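Ticket #4471: structure export looks truncated?
Reporter: QA, pipeline team
Priority: medium

Steps to reproduce: submit the single chain below to the structure queue and open the exported record.
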Amino acid sequence: MRLKAALVVLVLCLFPGTALAVAPDEMLANPALEARARGISEGLRCMVCQNQSIDESDADLARDLRLLVRERLTAGDSDAEVIDYVVSRYGEFVLLKPRLSAHTVLLWTAPAALLLAGALAVLASARRRRRESPSLSAEEKAKLDAILRDG
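Actual output as written to the record:
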């Protein structure tokens, strides 16, 4: 029994889940609103950590943003209105998954464009090599045939 318990503790230590930084005093009493707040918070970038959502970050600014999201939700804003409000204050960078817009079209199309450019470069190089490879003269072909027959 102790071995099983030790194994469970070891597995839990080796594979920790996402540590959420939301403090109990931040949580809303209404479970539906809290779930919406969590959903929104998972999509907003912590401006201090930059690689974490505000739901995961312990930074003071992340806490302030979590509280702001909850304030806007309790005021009756929709999820989209809350996100638009935060973006209007902090810019598009606050979104972990940027929207497709005129400002981000290069961000969304660059990977595909670079892949296409690379494929075209490889094809052009292969065609150039094929054209540049010299063909054998009749005398060289005869010598090669003789070598292959005798060999």
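Status: closed, not a bug. The export was complete when the record was re-opened. Leaving a note from the reviewer for reference: DSSP finds six helices and no strands in the chain.
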